[in-house]
Amino acid sequence: MTETARPRTEGLESQSKNSQQGAQSAPSGNVQHGAQSAQPGNAQQGAQSAQSGNAQSAVAAPGPTPAPRSRPERPQHVAVVESVERITPNLVRIIAGGAGLADVEDKGFTDSYVKILFADPALGLEPPFNLANLRETLPPEQLPVTRTYTVRWFDLENQRLALDVVVHGDSGIAAPWAASAMPGNRFAFHGPSGAYAPAPHTRFHVFAGDHSALPAITAALERLPEDARGVAHIELTDARDIIHPNAPEGVELNWLINEDVHDVDLLARTLDAGPWGESDGVFVFAHGERESIKAVRRVLARRGITRESISISGYWARGRAEDVFQAEKRLPIGKIEEDAA
Ligand SMILES: Cc1cc2nc3c(=O)[nH]c(=O)nc-3n(C[C@H](O)[C@H](O)[C@H](O)COP(=O)(O)OP(=O)(O)OC[C@H]3O[C@@H](n4cnc5c(N)ncnc54)[C@H](O)[C@@H]3O)c2cc1C
């Protein structure tokens, strides 16, 4: 164990700039501004999953030895960073490849995502990680953690894929990693998984999401037929992050610039105002910050959009590291659906 598996922190200046699909940074589409009173960010890290206890019983009574927990290990793929591009001020594209992608499968979803594994740098681990072994030897708080990223595009013939990572400041693990990633860095991931791709019978496509959902929305827009109709409401905190997705003419791009982290309803209000198309056959793809997506879900429920016509989830939650965000999915606060009732 000689080298760290967690990202290195060299400066951006020396990064490779040979990305193939760079989006532009000039505004396009219909830009709407929400309230602008507060700075984005200032999110506080949520509680970590530290173990507590260590209580010892006064009498060490011999008992049955618990059977070791056996859980099937999900395959890990090891990728090598080929290039890093700052697409816009707050979005970094990582193009990764290598022989480790040989058995990666593109199942055709436009919201395909992978779970990147990050190990504590103090452990000096190299990917892939022997998770079963680490679970036996490390306390839970020192185990590798995962961060989820949409596959912006696959080029598996050439064993490559691209991830677009929102760099949201110094907090977190994945965002700082992406901000300082260098060609040659290696990382392990699980996946891809996915669930959505635009259906041919959809007559009006409605997309709603924030910066974290922009890769999935853009991948879907690129997949639409030329005569597709719809709207994409995309909420950003910084107008400089507007890009020019390759969308059909009949799909309106509605950029919302919201610098007020307390205004979690802007996306929902805007979505509610339409357009909705003039017929049934609407499908809604809505993903992003949890509270904002809960507000969207309430609008969809009030409008009577049926569950089969919706792909919806929180992609992150303000003030929570992903581990906490994922764990909270089991609690009332983490549920998007129940909040809509
Ligand atoms: C299916 C799925 C697909 C996703 N695809 C993408 C993608 O393609 N690109 C992408 O950038 N993200 C994507 N996300 C969201 C991403 O997984 C989270 O933003 C994740 O928390 C980032 O990890 P981190 O280590 O940078 O920050 P964490 O350690 O998880 O969080 C640290 C702090 O940063 C805050 N934070 C986390 N994300 C953001 C953000 N986007 N903006 C502002 N503050 C934030 C947290 O609230 C917390 O306070 C996806 C999530 C899911 C579930």
Short description:
The chain has 341 residues and is an alpha/beta fold. The chain contains seven helices and twelve strands.
List the helices and strands and how they pair.
Layout: E1 30-33, E2 77-88, E3 91-97, E4 113-118, H1 131-137, E5 145-155, E6 160-166, H2 174-180, E7 186-193, E8 204-210, H3 214-223, E9 230-236, E10 251-257, H4 266-273, E11 282-289, H5 290-302, E12 310-316, H6 322-327, H7 336-340
Parallel strand pairs: 1-10, 8-9, 8-11, 9-10, 11-12
Antiparallel strand pairs: 2-3, 2-7, 3-6, 4-5, 4-7, 5-6
In what range is the share of β-strand residues?
A: 25-35%
Helix content: 10-25%
Per DSSP E runs of 2 or more residues, the count of β-strands stands at 12
What is the C-alpha radius of gyration, as a whole number of Å? 21 Å
Describe the protein's architecture and organization.
The protein is α/β, with parallel strands linked by helices. Helices cover 16% and strands 27% of the residues. It contains 7 helices and 12 strands. The strands form 2 sheets. Strands 1-10-9-8-11-12 form a 6-stranded parallel beta sheet, with helices on both faces. Strand 8, helix 3 and strand 9 form a beta-alpha-beta unit. Helix 4 (266-273) runs parallel beside helix 5 (290-302). The longest helix is centred in the last third of the chain and has 13 residues, at 290-302. The chain is globular. The structure holds flavin-adenine dinucleotide. Flavin-adenine dinucleotide binds at residues 43, 45, 113, 147-150, 164-166, 168, 171-175, 211-212, 215, 315-322. Flavin-adenine dinucleotide is lined by residues 43, 45, 113, 147-150, 164-166, 168, 171-175, 211-212, 215, 315-322.
